[in-house]
Amino acid sequence: MRRVFTTMLFVGALVIGARGIQAQGDGGYKLVPNWPKLPAGMYFGLKNAPPPPAERDAQAAARRARGGSAGGGQTPQAGGPTNQPGISGLAIDQHDHIYVFNRGEKPVMVFDRDGNLVLAGADQEINGKKINPSWQHSGGVDWDGNVYVIERDAHRIVKLSPKLDKFLLQLGTTNEKGNDPTHLDLPSGIAILHNGNMIVTDGYGNNRVILFDKAGKFIKQVGKGAGGPQDKGTGPGEWNLPHKLAVDADENLYIIDREGHRLEVFDKNLNYIRDIRNDWNPWDVNISRKGTDGIGWIADHKDERVHKFQLKDGKILATWGKQGWGPGEFDWVHGIVVDSKGGVYAADTYGQRIQKFVASATPSTQR
């Protein structure tokens, strides 16, 4: 009896400990409260929040019972496809400014590490067309502070000046899809190298990854063929929806093969090196700007969680999260970045928020 009681105490302690870890964010990381500080009248995504997970599931089941599509919880609009609400992705610059690509009133919102809004915009007409925020699919920022906005469903990526007030460059042809050097088909991610060259995941339509020079000239592509749904593959340099990507200190590229559930690693000239696999469904990947610590971060749609992992072999070092709207939970986690102090920022679409986490031992002054 004494042994049973001791065992029960031990198991109980584990459960309590697990709950305590979960409450703090798990994986040795804790949530920073009240981050960010949104000014009055500003918000992420839709002003009226979408239904929570359980209600969306019930709505989808009802539609299936009626013989309709399960859908994504939104009603299509006459103006074109409507994506999930909230935040489509994140980027971070060398000054630890966090760029939020917002499917809301202000398509780009920029915060400092303390959560103060320092800039918002990209809501003007750009190159003859105003960006439709609900068509956004993340973006990027280069080493000069220029900002790249992926307007996925318009088949283009626009480059703006650091203050978001000047149009500088466009990749793809507005509202025209294709698989030649001047067209994209539902692009999904971008990374910018030190020399200004751009790597684009032309993911949803073309299953290819493209290298452009800093002027937007096509250099090469990696894919099974010309690009398109028939181009799906599982081999080296083949894709089943190349989604987003990250760059390390040597400018190696870690590119998500989303439905292949892997990362494919290339050098800066798009030469294949290897792949990384694990028990995940990665939607975003990030490596710090310094990029020399051998660590990466994954926003994982499988079970709605965040992973810290080793770049050399994909070994997971820390994990936290589950589906929900509570602290440290995620609802379609779709963006992740890490700052120079080790702070981790994760954003979701249906959750319509960004959360910041720091290592549990990190002093409050590092926040």
Give an account of the 3D structure:
The chain has 367 residues and is mainly β. Helices cover 11% and strands 35% of the residues. The protein contains 3 helices and 26 strands. The longest helix has 23 residues, at 2-24. The N and C termini lie far apart (49 Å). The model is unreliable at 1-25, 71-80 and 363-367 (pLDDT under 50).
Short characterization:
The chain is built from three helices and 26 strands. It has about 375 residues and is mostly beta strands.
Key terms for this structure?
single chain, 367 residues, four-stranded antiparallel sheet, disordered N terminus, mainly beta
Regions with little confidence, pLDDT below 50 for 5+ residues: 1-25, 71-80, 363-367
Spatial strand order of the main sheet:
1-26-25-24
**DSSP strand (E) fraction?**
35-45%
Shape: globular
State the distance separating the first and last CA atoms.
49 Å
Please report the number of helical segments.
3
Major sheet summary line: 4 strands, antiparallel
Radius of gyration: 21 Å
Helix proportion range: 10-25%
How would you state the average pLDDT, rounded? 88
Strand tally: 26
Task: Please state the structural category.
Answer: mainly beta
Q: Which SSEs are present, and which pair or pack?
A:
Elements: H1 2-24, E1 29-31, H2 53-65, E2 87-92, E3 98-102, E4 108-111, E5 117-121, E6 125-126, E7 129-130, E8 136-141, E9 147-151, E10 156-160, E11 167-171, E12 189-192, E13 198-202, H3 203-206, E14 208-212, E15 218-223, E16 242-247, E17 253-257, E18 262-266, E19 272-277, E20 282-286, E21 295-300, E22 305-310, E23 316-320, E24 333-338, E25 344-348, E26 353-359
Antiparallel strand pairs: 1-26, 2-3, 3-4, 4-5, 6-7, 8-9, 9-10, 10-11, 12-13, 13-14, 14-15, 16-17, 17-18, 18-19, 20-21, 21-22, 22-23, 24-25, 25-26
